[in-house]
Specification:
By secondary structure, the chain is of the alpha/beta class. The chain has one domain (41-231): 3-Layer(aba) Sandwich (Rossmann fold), CATH 3.40.50. 41% of the residues lie in helices and 11% in strands. The chain is built from six helices and six strands. The chain has helices at residues 2-38, 71-85, 105-115, 132-141, 157-166, 184-203; strands at 42-43, 54-58, 91-95, 123-126, 147-152, 170-175. α5 links the parallel β5 (147-152) and β6. α1 crosses α5. The longest helix has 37 residues, at 2-38.
């Protein structure tokens, strides 16, 4: 009886070890696939970032949990403002989380960019960018984009570009100005896991965005173009109606 029990335990441990080895291999191969297949579409320096009509800027909190300014947020804002100032892009789609009225990434991004001199008519907010996947699906299906420049950190861009191109979009990546941040290693580890999960989202369980909504094509306007009250799109910010376009500075 004891020998039979030991035999079952040995088989269980061998099976468990084989599963762990398989999971490790899938983790490594998945990350390698995402990074290697997107490397040629990512520009590491601002001077190399490829011009296009619209850049998608991924949201994050402008403050860290410890109460300090989030360097990743401000790096994305600086890079995005420079893209507009240098006329490398004509419009910014700023997409982020707005699950509650107290936490609003797109509005914080809008304010920061507006203060950096980006004209209101060159900004569109997406309030339902709850994840990288949601942002890109909505960019394609709601904002009707088939080509865009993606702006975020270097460790985030491979997954973002991979998703965009898997969705049939012609996307390239522009690395936001890098700044070191405390605890960044946690973000990088989480990103490694997210890359593997993304493969499941795209090719296994067919993930759907949390909120889609009706099409709202982006109208490209230059900073010096006429923008009258009559041409102002409607704006309705509700707790569960996340997509909107804001064309005047948010109230402080």
């Amino acid at each position: 009886m004891r020998s039979l029990l030991l035999r079952y335990i040995k088989r269980f441990l061998m099976s468990l070890g084989a599963l762990m080895l398989l999971a490790t291999l899938l983790f490594i191969v998945g990350n390698f696939w995402v990074v290697a297949s997107t490397a040629r579409y990512i520009d590491d320096s601002f001077a190399e970032c490829r011009p296009t009509d619209v850049a998608i800027v991924f949201g994050t909190s402008n403050w860290t949990r410890s109460g300090f300014r989030n360097p990743h947020f401000h790096a994305r804002m600086r890079t995005s403002a420079r893209l507009i100032a240098d006329k490398r892009v004509r419009h910014l789609l700023i997409s982020g989380d707005n699950r509650t009225q107290a936490y609003n990434e797109p509005r914080a991004m809008w304010r920061d960019l507006y203060r950096r001199g980006v004209p209101a008519e060159q900004l569109t907010m997406d309030f339902a960018g709850f994840s990288t996947y949601d942002t890109l699906v909505r960019a394609r299906d709601v904002f009707q984009l088939d080509k865009a420049l993606l702006v975020t950190q270097s460790w985030h861009l491979p997954r973002a570009v991979f998703i965009g191109r898997a969705l049939g979009m012609e996307v390239t990546g522009c690395v936001a100005e890098e700044e070191s941040a405390a605890g960044e290693w946690r973000l990088r580890i989480r990103e490694w896991v997210a890359r593997v999960a993304t493969l499941g989202d795209l090719y296994i369980w067919g993930r759907e965005p949390y909120f889609l909504g009706s099409p709202e094509p982006i109208e490209l306007k230059d900073a010096n173009s006429n923008f009258s009250e009559a041409s102002r799109p409607s704006f309705n910010l509700d707790a569960y109606y996340y997509t909107a376009r804001l064309v005047q500075p948010p109230q402080e």
